[in-house]
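step: validate -> pass
step: tokenize input -> pass
step: predict -> running
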Amino acid sequence: MALRTENRLLRDQAVCALICSSSGITAREIAKELNMDRRSVNRILYGSPLMQELCYQDARNRWHGLIRQTRPHAGLREISGYYALVRDFLVLSEDEWMEALSEGCRNIGRNLNDTRGLLHSFRDCRTQMLQLFEDLRMMKGRSVLDWEIAFELKLKRGRYVRIYADVLVMTESHVFSLEFKMKDAIEPEEVEQAAKYCPYLEILFGPSCDVIPVLVLTKSSDLYEFTQIGATDMLLPVCSGDMLFNVFDEYLGFLDE
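step: predict -> pass
step: emit ->
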């Protein structure tokens, strides 16, 4: 039963990835491209939760992804508090950025109740990202300005359950999911929180991008290590803000160039 469920999920993901990487595709074309029978394709298109979350059908019976799996990722703006190319993010003042983020959060239904220091945490994230891109521009050059960045990406579109990823940075080949905590110590439940977005993001961005979850502790310094995710044998990078560039180098390898 578990294997059957896994195979069904893989088929659902394959159909979703094909739709989201196209500019509009019919069920017949999907079946031909994936070597599947038409009935199985229709069962996925009209019955899979992934289709309801990430895809839609137009009046010509062509299927489209809400998020395009090509760069830049059209559609991310509509489910993010703030989305832009890195070059556009860097030129905004803090007030301009906060105004844009606040408006975007309201548009996606993000509660901006500040009783737990939410707005302060937003500003802290921005400060860390400014430092990151200052470091990266020195090490990798101006190519990082063409990367994409999203704050408060809405991952669950359910009526009552809503989850928001702190910051995503999208390069040519990787998506870095950065979970920020204003702390100086690693806590296992926060490691698991940083990792839990991965399965959804892997579907959202498709097989051509590697999703890298990262826990960033902004009250620490000179921290960069890998820690175990729960009871699994998988490891997750944990770092302080001043060492975040090391995570990008770990997977992109620009310091070796």
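step: describe -> Residues 9 and 48 are 9 Å apart (CA to CA).
step: cleanup -> pass
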